[in-house]
Description:
The protein is an alpha/beta fold. The protein has 9 helices and 17 strands.
Amino acid sequence: MKKVKVGIIGCGNISSIYFEAGSKFDIIEIAACADLDLAKAKEQAEQFGVPKACTVDELLADPDIEIVVNLTIPHAHAEIHMRALQAGKHTYGEKPLAVTMEDGERILALAKEKNLLVGSAPDTFLGGGIQTCRKLIDDGWIGKPIAATAFMMGSGPESWHPNPGFLYEVGAGPMFDMGPYYLTALINLIGPVRRVSGSAQMTYPERTITNDIDYGKKIPVEVPTHIAGTLDFENGAVGTIITSVDVWGSKLPHLEIYGSKGTLVVPDPNTFDGPVYVKRHNQSEFMAMPLTHGFTQNSRGLGLMDMAYAIRNGREHRASGEMAYHVLELMHGFHLSSEQGVHYAVASSCKQPAALSADLPRNGLDG
Length: 367
Ligand SMILES: NC(=O)c1ccc[n+]([C@@H]2O[C@H](COP(=O)([O-])OP(=O)(O)OC[C@H]3O[C@@H](n4cnc5c(N)ncnc54)[C@H](O)[C@@H]3O)[C@@H](O)[C@H]2O)c1
């Protein structure tokens, strides 16, 4: 199969794992990379053997590049997605799809008009852990899902991220930065959501960086940092979510799905691995379940690979723009519900992505 040539825009902290994906999967070839800071693009190109480091304009003008991979900060996501589509390229980006719903809509509309694909992280739901959970649900191990819980509880990225300022700007915060992992996993396991409610607070107006680079520096907070929400799924299940960077510790589970015939403990949706546990109605203990699917290592880029196969084989891709837009609307919905004191009725929907086969080649997705 002819490789799909990819150009990466944004060569910061997360980019290395995407550059590595270029050598892990046969379907893509990373042909160029760009950054506002050309030195960063050159550094990554040299480290990962990418033939061209260039400006964003040069990358977008390269006729060989079919997919632009957008690894910029959230505020730049919409602009880069739109420019990539205008240049006739498919586009795949880090989460969130965009900061505002209006920008998300514009991206999907332009892609439709140009007959191009939009894809978005997270793609951890394609990993062995969550695909095993999906198979267990599809095979009826817990019966019909009737409820779910999702808890992302921590003390914030300012202790480890080299550039944590943007993670407290509008478009980030715990819901927009971490919520996509949990919400995408829930949509993959249960389906789309019709209504949400939320209570959100900004607990501290500023945070103190404790990484090695800027230790002691204060950063302003623009967004809620503790958000508690509920979700009514289209299939009738009810979910509870908390995303917080205001707690020093928690023993709450990451994700659990409660079915009519049992309970499923889902692994951390920010990872690709297990463990997975099930307790059926007629059992007294939880059982550790063997993983049925591969890609259990850090396989960021899987969603991009899936999109590359989708382009070559003319099928739908799983980490889709439609699902990312639905997630974006849910995240806004929690905040809007809190501000307005009412439930938020969700206007968008999306298809539950197709489950992956348990029998795939080591470095491919389409058999
Ligand atoms: N760091 C992580 O662990 C992590 C994990 C998962 C997802 N993400 C997501 O990946 C994205 C990037 O995060 P990061 O941690 O790599 O950030 P970063 O700040 O380390 O890197 C972002 C890079 O994008 C470049 N950039 C910004 N605007 C640009 C523009 N308009 N044109 C070209 N380049 C531009 C910056 O110069 C920088 O090099 C974010 O959406 C984040 O949510 C990060």
